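User: Hi! I'm working on a homework problem where we have to compare a predicted structure to a textbook description. Could you give me the structure for the chain below?
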Amino acid sequence: MASPSFDPKGFDGFVFDRMSETGLPGLSAAVIQDGKVVHARGYGFRDAAAGLPATPRTLFGVGSITKSFTALSVAKLVEGGKLEFHDPVTKYLPILGRLKAFEGVEVHHLLSHSSGIPGLGYAEVLIYGTIGSYHTWLPIASLEDMSDFMGEVDGWVEARPGERLLYLNEGYYLLGEIVARTSGVPCETYITREILRPLGMSRSFFSREEIEQDRDRATPYLIRGGRAGPSVMPYGCGAAGGLVSNVADLSNFVLMLIDGGEFGSTRIVSRESLRLMEEPYVRWPTELSPGDGYGYGFRVTPDFHGHRLVGHGGSIEVFTADLRCAPDAAAGAIVLANGTGYSMSGFSSYAIASLLGADPEDLRSVRAERLLRRVEGQYRGYRGTVLAEVRRSGGFLKLSGDDIGDEIILVPDEADGDGASFFTITHGAKMDVRFRFDERGVELLYERYRYRRSGPLRPRT
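Assistant: Happy to help. Predicted structure tokens:
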């Protein structure tokens, strides 16, 4: 059976519209169908001030997509007999043996974010401190520094190992140290030598020197209020999020996943190891479909329009990214941007839904977005006596106006053919808010008032 035809114009239009709305300066995307790259292009600017366009070869920080490469490194070392997935972490990092939090914690638990230790904020402080929008700083440049930082973690353990997912960037920092100790070289060197170069990813780097001498690299941007200002790259995330790459290179990684661990005539990892990496060991806390979970360096969705998706997202605030594929359908998508403001997984999901023959406009996220856009605007009460304004803010709405006071957050509840229900919290109690659709347009029922949408939003100055 022939694969569904991918609609590049529809995808390009979707990307362009969302970039225009959110202020994203630049973006690159690649789409893979039947094991081949069928669409790759840049959108917008890699450097807006210089007027330089983004290309499929433009370098972006990929954030936590790096974790997939770190986990793959561990899998390769397991194949080489250097360690085992169920070895205790303290076997390789005895400095952590003084902490009760690591009793019973295996390499497996760090790989699957199931150690029971909650996120401690190390990566957040590194990223936001570097770009100048955070209140503290942590001098973590070695395992000894990390051990000192985690010195009080025993009182913060939230669950037993293997019990639940608690996303832990520090865990992948430690995995990088384990890779270094078992391979004899720094984790970044091992990834480059054993994974990036065999995959032909010749323009994927960790070092600042290599990144900054490349002329086709994206300027990092910090977006506030829909406006993008140039920022700086937060170096130092290493095994947890330090890789810089491009969609042309990352397409080779996706092709390897599709081919069960092989790229061309080169086997990167065994099919069995890849199967173990793509097994959902713990449930993802925000399920998009039943069974969503996390494996070893991959988020796994067992049923996306009848196919299993594997991949990872990434964000270091000034760069955002998403990579995912449906191996059994030989389909995939990679999206990289030099800013934040729209979910990169929204772009990749749109592409893959189209590749799988589904209507991407019927995705739950797209429907929700369409609903928020429909109700956004200026509203007037009876004879214009009271005025209100509804604005989108992420997946929520903000309501403000006469006799309302400061902006009130409206949370989506349910939608039907006649309208949509939201709710807010007032005086500690839940209050229903209703938007009603009819031939006259959109009406808002809030508290004692009935409003009618009178026009689009006026730009804020």
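For your comparison, note the following. The chain has two domains: 8-362, 369-455. Residues 369-455 form a domain with the Lipocalin fold (CATH 2.40.128.210). Good luck with the assignment!
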